[in-house]
Amino acid sequence: MSDDMPPWEPPFAGSEVEHLLGAIDRQRATFRWKAADLDAAGLAFRLPASDLSLGGLLKHLAWAEDLMFTRKLDGSSQHEPWASAPFADEPNWEFESARSDTPEALYRLYDEQVERSRATVAAALEAGGLDQIVALGREHGISVTLRRLLFDLLEEYGRHTGHADLLREAIDGRTGEDPPWPT
């Protein structure tokens, strides 16, 4: 990639892995920009017909990343706060509990999880590539690959980045697809 390209831009001509990881990172960057620089009221803002907030989405996507690259990838337990979260009693716990979290805590939780996910995926790719069968498949007696987990995460970001577009525009008018560049 040339130096004048944003770091989240997928390559114009790369491998399957480079394109897939680049597409996920572009969604991560766009989502994070949509959620950036808001106070507690901004992160808690909801549209009248929805319970979604940017704070809830930050926490939900941190949970989704952790789930994807722990239990679904290798069968390991999720990290905190997910390991002890009361999901059995409160299925939308991450969305609801985000209302009580500070902006700093939500941003830190999300940012740290994305970095942990990047490292975990890099190690998994090094160990077995996209075609390796992951724990989710073994758990159900079917072949589920790392490729599928990455595509599932890309789909999750696509859905929620669209939600973030609507929420952020309603909060302060921020629109656009990518963060300003160069930053």
Characterization of this structure:
This protein is mainly alpha-helical. The protein is built from eight helices and no strands. The protein is globular, with a radius of gyration of 17 Å. The two termini are 17 Å apart. The model has no long low-confidence stretch (mean pLDDT 93).
Instruction: Determine the strand fraction and express it as a percent band.
Output: under 5%
In N-to-C order, the SSE pattern is HHHHHHHH
Structural class: mainly alpha
- How many DSSP-defined strands? 0
Largest sheet: none
Low-confidence stretches: none
Which term fits the overall shape? globular
Mean pLDDT: 93
Which radius of gyration do the C-alpha atoms yield? 17 Å
The number of distinct helices, counting runs of at least 4 residues, comes to 8
* Fraction in helix: 55-70%
Question: Distance between termini?
Answer: 17 Å
Topology of this protein?
Elements: H1 16-35, H2 40-44, H3 54-68, H4 71-74, H5 93-97, H6 103-128, H7 135-140, H8 146-172
At a glance:
The chain is mainly α and 183 residues long. It has 8 helices and no strands.
Could you list some keywords that capture this structure?
183 residues; mainly alpha; 0% strand
